[in-house]
Design a protein that fits this description.
Largest sheet: none
Number of helices: 12
Shape: elongated
Number of strands: 0
Length: about 230
């Protein structure tokens, strides 16, 4: 039997519901649990409820934020209500600017702030990427919209999010992105401009718990060394 209540149903579609329905079957499709009708049904209901309740359109990336909570509290053992509440709280604490603002100005601002942070800590690397026209929107969109959920295996997402919750600052994701780039400084500086996208695709990742822990430690160091006015 389920040990909690189900996600509250809503009797109307949300804005961009067709995108939501296209995204749900693709969400972590390589994980068996996410191919089940129970999980996909809860995912649809939760995302629709969030969008209708808060009068926002569904945006790609919301599904990736919900996925770790469903993995922790999988249907049908869990009804989905708690996972939904956790997702909702996480979005409003760390991702509100991306998902609860109708236009893309907040996301563009995030890219601009990240560029400033990169120039402050890694001026040579920042210049290389800028001169190569390899801007943050080309590699960091999923980082910031999903707090790296889109980019990591689920156990690693939870490990990174533990650190995010401990720091409890929405800007910490920028510092994680900064250190992911900085760890690959040599490769990015030495490669030809037209090879940067290929190098970034291969290198800008965290694949093990050890790599996540190293990035988090470096990100915390950079966070503490950055003027509070940035945050």
């Amino acid at each position: 039997p389920k040990d909690e209540e189900a996600v509250e149903g809503v009797d109307r579609a949300c804005k961009e519901e067709h995108v939501l329905h296209a995204d749900v079957p693709r969400t972590r499709a390589y994980v068996e649990a996410f191919r089940s009708s129970d999980v996909q049904s809860v995912l649809v209901e939760s995302l629709r409820l969030f969008c209708v309740t808060h009068a926002v359109a569904y945006k790609q990336g919301m599904n990736e934020v919900m996925a770790p909570f469903l993995w922790l509290l999988p249907p049908p053992t869990h009804g989905g209500a708690l996972a939904h509440k956790l997702m909702e709280a996480f979005i409003f604490r760390y991702l509100e600017r991306h998902f609860c603002v109708e236009d893309s100005a907040a996301t563009r601002t995030a890219f601009a702030l990240f560029s400033l942070l990169l120039r402050y800590h890694e001026p040579q690397l920042a210049a290389k990427l800028r001169n190569s026209e390899f801007d943050p929107d080309l590699y960091a969109t999923a980082w910031f919209l999903t707090a790296f959920s889109r980019n990591l295996e689920l156990p690693l997402v939870l490990r990174l999010w533990d650190a995010t919750l401990a720091v409890d600052d929405a800007s910490f994701t920028f510092f994680v992105g900064l250190r992911v780039l900085a760890r690959n400084r040599s490769e990015l500086l030495l490669c030809a401009d037209d090879s940067i996208p290929e190098v970034a695709t291969k290198r800008l990742a965290m694949r093990t718990e050890e790599e996540v822990d190293e990035v988090v430690a470096d990100a915390l160091e950079a966070y503490r060394a950055t003027p509070e006015s940035f945050r």
